[in-house]
Amino acid sequence: MSVVLAGLCTVDVVQRVAELPSPGEKVQSLAVDVAAGGPATNAAVTVAALGGEATLLTVLGAHPLATLARADLEAHGVEVVDLLPEHPDPPAVSAATVRDHDGERTVVSRNAAALLTPAPALTPLKPASAVLVDGHHPALALRTVRWARERGIPVVLDAGSWKPVLDELLPFVDIAACSAQFRVPGPGLHERGVPTVITTAGPDPVRWSTVNSSGSVPVPEVAARDTLGAGDVWHGALAYGVGKFELPELIGFANEVAAERVRHAGPRSWVTAVQGKGKQ
């Protein structure tokens, strides 16, 4: 499976602690990790871990911090297409704190909202079984979904929160995979032309609906060690499984992969646990 993923890439600094600190409190971390992050980025790592070809369209630039993210992605088999390779400013940075005993986390991030990303020419891209966009870098998202539509490639939207670009983006989306907090102003997603809508809710069953049917798929019960990026991993597994599985089996597959992620502490420790699952 070859998947094109377009969206945000951050540099994540992750501190693991015994307890989340209170305001004004200073604590010693148990461990620290630095890795590439962001919805499309973590999804791309997932696609590659499952055995697919992952091409990430994003912005990193030439700042020294960008080399950390780029090295992490290269080490995990993700092909990176940097739209602004000479951009001198630091990439988006995310600081996360993860509680050791249950994987709960807090995140403070600076995304790419202020960065005007050009809409690239996408014709050199290889054929893909699916496209995933996260709505960050709006011009990139729109160009990518139009490229996919021209070639009959299914489009998956990682809908974490409402973004203005979604008014234009939604008519091109085949599967909107939403967080429980996602809210649509005005008409609903089906009314806006989205054939399949899926809503995750952490450990609760994942709900899905099409124009003609609906249902839910239970999530495996696991002892959570780290929930950071679990939703991104779920979206990556979903995009990988498009064309390989039908609903609700597709959702069940994504649930199983995300469950492996939360069983493991650290941003990349789960990768070896899911290798081979995509070929089953």
Automatic annotation (TrEMBL):
InterPro entries: Ketohexokinase-related (IPR052562), PfkB_dom (IPR011611), Ribo/fructo_kinase (IPR002139), Ribokinase-like (IPR029056)
Keywords: Kinase, Transferase
Positions of the Carbohydrate kinase PfkB domain: 3-179, 188-269
SUPFAM superfamilies xref list: Ribokinase-like
GO molecular function, one term: kinase activity
Gene source species: Amycolatopsis xylanica
The protein's name: Sugar or nucleoside kinase, ribokinase family
